[in-house]
Amino acid sequence: MHIMSDHYVKVKVQLEQLKSTGEVEEADTAEEQVPKETPPASLSPLPVALEVRRDASKNPGTARNRSKSRTKLGNYDKSPNTKQDAPVSSHLDNVPSLQVKGTGKVLQEKAEANGNVVTSQPQKDIKSALSKEDANKIVKKRRPVTVDTSKAKTSLEALKLSIRQLKWKEFPTGRRAACDIYWHGVSFHDNENIVSGQVNKFPGMVEMLRKINLSRAVRTMQELFPEEYNFYPRSWILPEEYQIFATQIRLARDSDSSSPRQTFIVKPDSGSQGDGIYLIREPSDLRSMSTGAMGGSGAVRQAVVQEYIQRPLLIDKLKFDVRLYVLVRSLDPLEIYVAKEGLSRFCTEPYQEPSTKNLHRVFMHLTNYSLNVQSGNFVHSDSRNTGSKRTFTSVLGRLAAKGADVKRVWSDIIALVIKTVIALVPELKVFYQADIPPGKPGPTCFQILGFDILLMKNLKPVLLEVNSNPSMRIEHEQEVSPGVFEYVPSPVDEEVKVGVIRDTLRLMDPLRKQHTTGAEQEDILMEEGSVEKAGPEDHALPSLCLKQVFPKYTKQFNYLRMVDRIATIFLRFLGVKGTMRMGPTGFRTFIRNCKLSNTSFSMASVDILYIDITRRWAGMLPDSREAGMTLQAFVESFFYLAGRRFKSLPLREQVLSLLEQCEAALEGQGQDDKPRPLRAPPINPAQTNSPAPARRNHGYRLHQTLRPSAKANPEH
Ligand code: ADP
Fold first, then answer.
1. Is 290 helix (H, G, I), strand (E, B) or coil?
2. Which residue intervals of 620-650 are DSSP H helices?
3. How far is CA 95 from CA 10, 197, 215, in A?
4. In which element (H, E) is residue 304 found?
5. Which of 284, 293, 543, 697 stands the most exposed, by the fewest C-beta atoms within 10 Å?
């Protein structure tokens, strides 16, 4: 009895305090807040190359005679992850136990704007009598976490299930008052009116993960850390790198004519689901990049051409890839979780190494579900370890049975994920600051990403791409009789995807107690049964299927975050809120504050450097409206300055030395020192003696300036 009343006292105090911090809404009184190279002149069509075109008649989503076989959510509750009868705790129970052991003191928790929970002063003399009835009233008043699902699109079914399992409250058509969590189907900008809570998309993620931008971001890291970033196939950006691509291939062939011919895969920049992808063996096989839609007017189609992995790991003679879900919980500090379960998607035709005869065989070479499902050989299975879509752990089980080192595979995959996110973070921070400048109350962001990974024959994982909008569908379309299609549940999808969404929500719960997992120097493991510490509120739910990998493995990977440190300097001198580009004054202030100009590098040279690099970048973005220096251009300048100052060192040491020098110079200077409004002397853009020769020895531009795309990215 004594224990009980203590509990109620605790609850009452917490409730009062949460109310005072605005975290608890009184029942019935919810305040209503309204809330260059020129493209080759003629690129001959390739007669035998494979190309994926969508057959409109087969494309799910085209108007067809459909009947929804299952509309009741309750049907989904048979998910293996769902404990249907499990008593999911009420949110009152979810208030983490805050009693300090042995002291009888009660701590209070307060949710910060970023969702973190901080513990503050213990309260004294609170053991006023509180009857059970009073406590029950409090239970009723305690509101559940609220989720706006009005923009969730195709994630909706899995999201609804997750919210039900958590006993949270869904707002399917939005809400006038603010919600705790906003679930968007495409991008951060799906709803522009959010000023608090958390959104499941980061600004800029769609842009960053387009094929060209991902290739550029990884390539910058490859320049600094070639060994660490060798998990991404060699790639060239079209059309601007066509000549380099052609030359490199010719030189490689001339130097070793005995080696087997290489194959390349061409992927349109903003394509997905295998659309427009084809294989080639000769640079001259690249198709004309004039789009038909533009009437052959010469409009350039941007694409990545990439080394084709010829010897993938096969199971049952079939090529497959792995879709792994990764939660970026926060950018700063960086927090990454990896789902312990993923999906393996199988081709539907036995694999053969590429030859001129089979280059066009989509069902042999491309693992995309959306393609293979159209093959007559696709096997829909209710089992997790058969069929054309299986769980990743079932695949690992098969490999382990043959003696493969599965722990090693996991640790390599985790390393690949962390390194890839580290490559993306610097620019994401620039996007973030432009949309949510410091001082703006919110929202904060998190995002589930879909990593597509191929295992090579030697079990080494290779990154194919990262999807900002991975499909969260848990049903597939089936033709039940000629011309009649039904949506039927896909148990494998449901098991994996509902787990990922539900556990993402659990981790983003604004009232969840923070479980601090310190950075550890330990082997990277996805150990069997490893349980992410769940809060007391989670006792009725399965253990979390998301494993924290960062900051957990900070010590192993932090040295890679050099471009991130450059981005911190960039953001500091960026100036005006809302911009993503640095003006000449900001650049001069950076040089001056970091003490980088001297007699041999005058401020006039600084201005010329700025103009030269910025102009080169602007040339790549003819329709760009915003002027100034992008982060990528700044990184290029930084590498140039580092090379100039520390000539004798290798690039990585040069950049590190300059970073240390800049950081030391900036230490102690005010964080908010705005670029001095001194007027830069007029610069004559015609000046040609630029101090900034192309920074890379291969003499081509490595970066492309980013611009937000208004076009919605389809899920893939
Ligand atoms: P999309 O976004 O159109 O799905 P991906 O980059 O994922 O484009 O490529 C589609 C498919 O092509 C992959 O699922 C994989 O099966 C295959 N693929 C892509 N890149 C390579 C590569 N470098 N080597 C071998 N196969 C590849």
1. strand
2. 631-645
3. 10, 19, 44
4. strand 303-307
5. 697
Least Cα distance to 633 among 701, 565, 561 occurs for 701
The residue whose CA is least distant from atom 17 of ligand 1 is: 366
Please calculate the CA angle 52-55-60 and round it to the nearest 5 degrees. Answer: 110
Q: 716 CB under 6 A from ligand 1?
A: yes
Question: Shortest CA distance to 121 belongs to which of 19, 20, 23, 17?
Answer: 17
- Map tokens 């911090």 to a residue: 21
Q: What are the angstrom distances between the C-alpha of 541 and each of 89, 163, 412? A: 9, 12, 29
- Residue 348 CA to residue 634 CA, distance in Å, equals 46
Provide the token pair at 57. Answer: 């008649």
Q: Residue 262, class by beta-carbon neighbours within 10 Å (0-12 exposed, 13-18 middle, 19+ buried)?
A: middle
The predicted model scores a pTM of 0.78
Q: Which residue has the higher pLDDT, 88 or 308?
A: 308
Average pLDDT estimate for 267-276: 90
Task: Indicate which atom in ligand 1 lies nearest the CA of residue 268.
Answer: 3
Angle between helices 562-573 and 406-435 (to 10 degrees): 10
Closest CA to 427 of 556, 330, 570: 570
**pLDDT tens per residue across span 369-428:** 989 988 888 998 877 788 899 999 999 999 999 999 999 999 999 999 999 999 999 999
Helix, strand, coil percent values for the chain (each to nearest 5): 35, 15, 50
State both tokens at 555.
């010590």
Alpha-helical regions (H) of 36-141: 91-94, 132-141
Q: Considering Cα of 154, then 157, then 163, then 166, what sign does the dihedral take? A: negative
Please calculate the CA angle 590-588-438 and round it to the nearest 5 degrees: 50
Return the higher-pLDDT residue of 369 and 289.
369
- Tokens of residue 306, six digits: 């990439």
CA distance 706 to 709: 9
498 lines ligand 1 (CB under 6 A): no
Per DSSP, the three-state class of 260 is coil
Ligand 1 lined by 264 (C-beta under 6 Å) = no
Query: For 316-339, b where at least 16 C-beta lie within 10 A, e where not — what string?
Result: eebbbbbbbbbbbbbbeebbbbbb
Alpha carbons 681 and 585: distance in angstroms, whole number: 10
* Ligand 1 atom with minimal separation from the 233 CA: 23
333 upstream amide cis, omega within 30 of 0: yes
